[in-house]
Amino acid sequence: MAADPTPARIWSHRTLLIAGFSGLLASLDTSVNIAFPAITQAFGINLMSIQWVVVSYVLTYASLLLGCGRLADIFGHWRILTIGLLTSAAAFIVCGAAQTFAWLLMGRMLQGLGVALVFGSAPALVTLAVGAAERGRALGFYQMNLATGFALGPLLGGVLVDAFGWRGVYLYRALPALLIAWFTSGQVRSGRRPASGERFDLLGAVTLTLGTAGLLLAVSRSRDLGWTAPEVLVLALAGAGSLLVFLATEKRVAAPVVNIDLFRWPAFTLANLLTLMANGTRFPIGLLVPYYAVNILGYPATLGGFLLFPAAVMTTVAAAFAGRLSDRMGTAGLSSAGLAIQSVGLWLASGLDAGSDYPTAALALGLVGLGLGTFQVPNMSFVMGAIPRDHQGVAGSINQMMRTFGIVFGVTGASLLFERQRAFHAGLGEVGAFVVAFQNVFLAAAGLCALAAAVSLFRGRGSKQKTGKSG
After folding, report:
1. Which domain holds residue 210?
2. Quick one: pLDDT at residue 382?
3. Angle (nearest 5°) at CA 393 between 391 and 395
4. How far is it, in rounded angstroms, from Cα 281 to Cα 367?
5. Domain total for the chain?
6. Is there a domain that residue 1 lies in?
7. Is residue 115 left, alpha or beta, with left meaning phi > 0 and alpha meaning psi from -120 to 50?
């Protein structure tokens, strides 16, 4: 990409850098995970409640992603990115100043809005800055920035928690968000705008948001209340009803939020399902490993952050190479290989116990990261390439929304399985019950990821041919 010194190519490099740094800032939210034990203690809550720090955030941006992506396609990707960064900066301050757990959760919801605006615009800027032949490499660079944030987040989080307390994991990101917003605001007027007269499908966006939020919240609440609880049933029915209205709306409007016909293509639907499964099966790392490191291995928060580091840094390394490889060899085989590697890492993690040393744990978690990074870039390139270039905000949002669904289902399923396993094995003592429950959660994740690797093979050569024709 560096061989062409023309102004257009130089500007595309600049775009990639700004979009990449915006994604990096959003992915630094992994610094929050190592603060879970400190937040639990500060507000007097339990492990069952701490999931809401994750769910309130991801549920908000999952519900808003497609609408924000469409807003970016209509009103300009630079403009929406700037608004997202400013919203994120405000959210970091609200979270860092929270005096109650409810206040913290409100700040997390505001942060979810900010990141939905960022993820609805940044990937589109990346793909629009390059041609189809370089899409994999460009997305590899973008994913490498995200993975770098995932890698640095636990390390920074551990240091900040030990030095300043849990509030530091939010406040340190406010100034960088404002600085990046200052750079992006200068590009708003010159940013790419779609053809005039295109309207935003407000009804479709609202019903999609309500439907997504209702169903995801029903899944989250079902863990505590059961599927037959009135609250869960009302949420599930309201979510399903809203999605039915959304589907009916999208078939009739001239410019829908998302073209539903895309999901009639089996390979496209399968690619998004695999994104959900890959991210759902890796989330036990973010949820349980901080507690394993601090409460079972006895590590301080800083060293606990280093235990999360191998998975994230290997995702970064894999993303850098996977983008180049996907441009040459297609997406299906590389995605399947990544899922297979991830499943092996999860299986090795299921063997960790109170006597495991750092190298053993790092190897297992590192393989999970290597597999995830190998999978994500070619799979995202496939999804982005299947959607027209004037709808790249929606394309990036679909991929990110599936990743988010995976996180929500992952944190809900992992926490439910963990708590039930720990209660079942309570006779082994606190440490023994934790270890057995921990191992069983990772074993279940390994099996599901292995299934995803097998299913991924069914895309075959068709995915390479179709994405190759996409602009």
Report:
1. 201-254
2. 75
3. 70
4. 13
5. 2
6. no
7. alpha
